[in-house]
Amino acid sequence: MDMPSPCPNCGNIVEFHDMVNHPNEFRTLVCEECHDQIQEENNRGDMVDKFGNRITWKADPDDGLIESSVNSEEIATWCYEDEAEATFLSFMEIWNKAQERAQVAHESI
Q1: Cβ neighbours of 106 (radius 10 Å)
Q2: Do the Cβ atoms of 15 and 5 come closer than 8 Å?
Q3: CA triplet 44, 32, 60: central angle to 5 degrees?
């Protein structure tokens, strides 16, 4: 090894020139494996609505698509340009309004 360097994320020793920029931290280099893992974590998330439904999302930056699932059942795929999480939050606004209206309609029956 010419310049062995520890990855600050996992501790593995890799060549310095094989390290890449940390996706979230400007001045940090990490190994490619950690970079990919961090990117994967950045491109997914979940939330529980007030009715107990678990809503998850997974973004595919290469295709510009974000998939939303409710209780492990995929229900929508949307396009996004910049921030996948912001797109998901817009989806959640629509989802919550629809759930509230469905509850009101159900109660009026």
Answers
A1: 8
A2: yes
A3: 30
DSSP one-letter string for 9-73 = TT--EEEGGG-EE-SS-TT-EE-HHHHHHHHHHHTEEEEE-TTS-EEEEEEETTTTEEEEEETTE
- The model's pLDDT over 4-48, given as tens digits with 9 standing for 90+, comes to 999 999 999 999 989 999 988 878 999 999 999 999 999 999 999
Measured distance between the N- and C-terminal CA atoms of the chain, rounded to whole angstroms: 73
The model's pLDDT over 74-107, given as tens digits with 9 standing for 90+, comes to 999 999 988 888 889 999 999 999 999 998 888 8
- Mean pLDDT for the chain? 91
Q: DSSP string covering 73-98, please? A: EEEEEEE-SS-HHHHHHHHHHHHHHH
pTM of the model: 0.73
Residue whose C-alpha is closest to residue 58's, from 36, 43, 79: 43
Distance between CA atoms of residues 53 and 49, nearest Å: 5
